[in-house]
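By convention, each integer encodes one residue's backbone shape. The lines below illustrate.
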Amino acid sequence: EAVSVNAMHAPIARERILDLLARLIDKSLVLAEPSATGELRYQLLEPMRQFAAECLVRQGTAAVLGKRHAHWFAALVAEAAAQFHGPSEVAALERIDREYANIQAAFDLLLLDQPTRRGDAVRLAHGLWWFWAARDHWVEASSRLNRLVDSVHFDDDQGPELDLLWMAGSIAWMRGD
């Protein structure tokens, strides 16, 4: 099976991805660092990340890949949230900690993509609510929830959207607002 960003470029066979990644590491274009759990984490150097982002915009693939990125991290948060209040909670919170910069970027993209991805942003907020509370991210939680509340149309029978009001209110109460 092959992976393709868009139809303009030849797909890359899945078997070759690791080899190509190793070559980028050898050329110091990608950093490979072990995490506290022993996983290898890969990171583009910032100038390379900016250059790649510009290329994606020029090729017209930035929006598609941004949505894929947001969807993947929303699923990761949902998976972690399912482990809250149980024996795997610490590991789930740590996973969100490790990926938090990506999760924030995903949330921001979902807030900008009006209104087609608003439901995804609502689900992401639901998954992050306990993380924000457990990690004392009150200011960020308040800011993100308020931005989301301001962008959502509330109907009488939409529980997830109405829960946003409860989450925003509880965060405000915990902050003393």
